[in-house]
Amino acid sequence: METATHCWAPSTGWSGRLGGLDSERSVVVAFGDAGLRDRIDPICELVAAYPRSHVVGCSTSGQFLDTTLSDGTLIVGVARFASTKVTSAFVPIASPGDSFRAGCDLATSLVSDDLRAVFVVSDGLCVNGSELARGICSVVSDDVVVTGGLAGDGDRFASTWLLIDGAPRPGFVSAVGFAGDAVRVGHGSRGGWDKFGPERLVTHSSANVLFELDGRPALEIYRSYLGDRAAGLPATALLFPLALRDDCDDEVRLVRTVLAVDESAQSMTFAGDVPEGCLAELMHANFDRLVDGAYDAAGAAVDMMPRTDGATLAIAVSCVGRRLVLGEHVEDEIEAVFDRLGPLARQVGFYSYGELSPAGGGPCELHNQTMTLTTMSEG
Prior knowledge:
Layout: E1 2-9, E2 13-14, E3 26-33, H1 41-49, E4 54-60, E5 63-65, E6 68-70, E7 74-80, E8 85-92, H2 99-110, E9 115-122, H3 129-137, E10 145-150, E11 162-164, E12 167-169, E13 172-179, E14 183-190, E15 194-195, E16 200-206, E17 209-213, E18 216-217, H4 218-226, E19 242-245, E20 254-256, E21 258-262, E22 267-270, E23 279-284, H5 287-304, E24 312-319, H6 320-326, H7 331-341, E25 345-352, E26 354-358, E27 364-367, E28 371-378
Parallel strand pairs: 3-4, 9-10, 24-25
Antiparallel strand pairs: 1-2, 1-7, 3-7, 5-6, 5-25, 8-13, 9-13, 10-26, 11-12, 14-28, 15-23, 16-17, 16-23, 17-18, 17-22, 19-20, 19-23, 21-22, 24-28, 26-27
């Protein structure tokens, strides 16, 4: 496998010559500023340079190349495989209730007897990431690694886009499939947040909309913890995600972050499901643990990969909430990941509205407030 990376910036244009690894076995991942929907020249140049490749990408809440975070740019990672079969597909998605169907249709377009991995990017606002993951996993076999992320729009939560037929468009889910015995895929997903406050029972919810905790309006409880920061909802909720688990015996927790609030219903809409009967606890940031979590996520992905002298493309998806919390120290977690990957790896990534990765040894799940890594090589 061969890799290359590029960056487009308004002041300098493209770094390096595009198109050098174009082929039917090449994947091009592109992560760019949400404002590029209104300035599509760099996207058009990228797509024109890779006419035979499978090009996927999305808007972000910041994108990074190796250890450098930037805004207003377009970051690109290219991998050309020697023998791995690469396929791609996209499907429309109109609302969160359409998510399971979209996942099923997307996976059906990619599935084959030798499918080994699927990397997914989705519109970040009109999707229930939990149902999207369930739809995909209901079609592919259990040994297929499914990872990816939800597009971002800074902390605005107004509009996100995906690269569809070479243009930035909202309301879609897309994916790349990797098939054959040669492809090697690693993955890791870690948080690093600390729990605080009592653990509460979800007493009323519907899919990804939370109405009540312990019989009280969820938004009322949330506001009591946020204090003055409640005026900035939903963006300030990124600083205080929810940790969910099925019951007191469950050691695995999924993290959920808020996409929207409804004052009249006193409800909160999350990026993924918040099932009735589960236990929920607020979380807050610990700087050191967030960076350590990013390093551990990279370690988990690296440990899954065979030792090789070949190139590795690492795709990192971190939550926008982590960026807001880390502030001027945000590149610390990007550097921690890159340091753990090793000298032959190139890293591209973005800050998202949700991350897709297996949870422990189970199927793909939606995560929030994590650093999630996907590593790819061939051997």
